[in-house]
Write a structure and sequence with these properties.
single chain, 121 residues
Length: 121
């Protein structure tokens, strides 16, 4: 078969390619002769991983903050009694942001230390 340029394929109307007549195999013949089996239940749609529900946001942490986050995430993960999503550093960060948002009206200050102090930290 001769190669065609992409532009000629896009401009030309679709032409059916000449193919040989399909050869029926024994398996196809058996499927046609056998009565249709009752339809099985459709599998549940695939669930996307939870992390795909979140947006990425880069943040910088002190070394002690990262160490504590990891330590507590591992501790909480080990203590879990129910199956489900893992508890990770990111899980704890999202919980911390939710907690901060409940106290956002208490925030006062013009730098990190003052903001922390306004929350009693």
């Amino acid at each position: 078969m001769a190669r065609k340029k992409l532009t000629s394929l896009l401009d030309a109307p679709a032409e059916p390619e000449a193919t040989e007549a399909p050869v029926e195999t024994k398996a196809v013949a058996d499927e046609q002769a056998a009565p249709a089996a009752p339809a099985a239940e459709e599998p549940a749609p695939a669930v996307s991983p939870r992390f795909e529900d979140f947006l990425r946001k880069e943040a910088r942490f002190r070394e002690d903050q990262l160490d504590e986050l990891s330590r507590h995430a591992r501790r909480l993960q080990r203590l879990r009694t129910a199956p489900g999503e893992r508890i990770t550093d990111n899980t704890l960060i999202r919980v911390a942001v939710d907690l901060l948002m409940t106290r956002v009206d208490d925030l006062q200050g013009s730098n990190e230390d003052e903001l922390r102090s306004s929350l009693g930290l």
